[in-house]
Amino acid sequence: MKKVFFWGLGLFLLCLCLSSQAQLESTILPGAYQTAEYLPWLKNKKVGVFTNHTALINQRHLIDTLLSAGITVQKIFTPEHGLRGTADAGEITKDGIDSRTGIPIVSLYGNKYGPNENDLKDIDILLFDIQDVGARFYTYISSLQYFMEAAAANHKPLIILDRPNPNGHYVDGPVLEKPYASFVGKNTIPIVYGMTIGEYALMLKGEHWMKDSRSNDFTLTVVPCKNYDHTSYYTINIAPSPNLTSMNAIYWYPSTCLIEGTIVSEGRGTDHAFEYLGHPLIANKGFEFTPISKNGAQAPKLKNQICYGWDLSQRKAPTHKIDLELLIEIYDAFPIRDSFFLGSNVKDPRSYYFNKLAGTANLMEQIQAGQSAKDIRASWQKGITKFKKIRKKYLLYKDFE
């Protein structure tokens, strides 16, 4: 009996070991984990790193990994929200020195969006690693473009450590029209574009979307993720910015960020930004919240006012489409519709922030005209189909269709 017991125990432990190994081999790993691929390129080079708090390898920051490997990190470049990811949306961040490492920090969300010649003169190679969320108006892809343009203009090779896109399993939304290009949307892509940041970089370069003819005069290398494809549902274990603190909020974000362009609160100043939506004048919704000043939202919309509306933290977020029905419901619930969309000049549709977020004036006009979600979505399809054909050329991973 003892032999049978020990044989069975051994078989159980072997199965457990094989199961753990199989699970490890199927775990999604961002490009930063593939150190053997990119550390040799950085040896004996002065490296400029574009990053923030999301560039983790397990629980260790990329900068610490590079330094422990003997890599010379000459400068750190940071996007909106800063290196630690705590600055308010739109808050200007300043240059400085990282208190932990003593490395100079150059802010690319303040006086400039991209590094200049002086910033790059003592750098041999550039490295980019940041967690994106896959919505056009999330500004990290605009920062990526400025960074790439600087690399091209100064003939610096650029390595992108790719990370999975938590909204990378679908494409939806109106395609941006050039008159509405801004830092919250620079190129003719839908709101949800279904690409990792590495794939998007390849598209920027391949489609010549960067600002001048020198856009191809530099070496671009993407270190891909392991075990990821566009059917994956990737869970981010750190808030990519101060007001996206849960996966449910990240899934809602492509829909509810559009509320930033309206008089309605998008929930900044609460623990559930982009999940709490409301206004003091909205009635009969049975839910209330009060935005207050807090880290990451020092001056939220409708600060200290009781707002009535929607609690999306208790509602499963859409994962394959923008929730147009919700946007229409919010518009219909607001009693003074002439003031619903924030704008400074009713004669110029470009003055409306909602239109910059949407990338077009059509969506606002369609909502105002009472069009159905079905008809609005149908109007997007020609642009989406055209974009998908371009997108296919640059995919590094199996697609969702």
Question: Brief overview, please?
Answer:
The protein is an alpha/beta fold and 401 residues long.
Number of helices: 11
What's the story with the biggest beta sheet? 7 strands, mixed
Instruction: Give the name of the CATH superfamily of the largest domain.
Output: Uncharacterised protein PF07075, DUF1343
Share in β-strands: 5-15%
Name the quaternary structure.
Answer: single chain
Write down the domain tally.
Answer: 2
Span from first to last CA?
54 Å
| Radius of gyration computed on alpha carbons | 23 Å
Q: What's the structural blueprint in terms of helices and strands?
A:
Elements: H1 2-26, H2 35-42, E1 46-51, E2 56-57, E3 60-61, H3 62-68, E4 72-78, E5 96-97, E6 104-107, H4 117-120, E7 125-129, H5 140-153, E8 158-161, H6 197-206, E9 220-223, H7 247-256, E10 276-279, E11 288-289, E12 307-311, H8 324-333, H9 353-358, H10 362-368, H11 373-392
Parallel strand pairs: 1-4, 1-7, 4-6, 7-8, 8-9
Antiparallel strand pairs: 2-3, 5-6, 10-12, 11-12
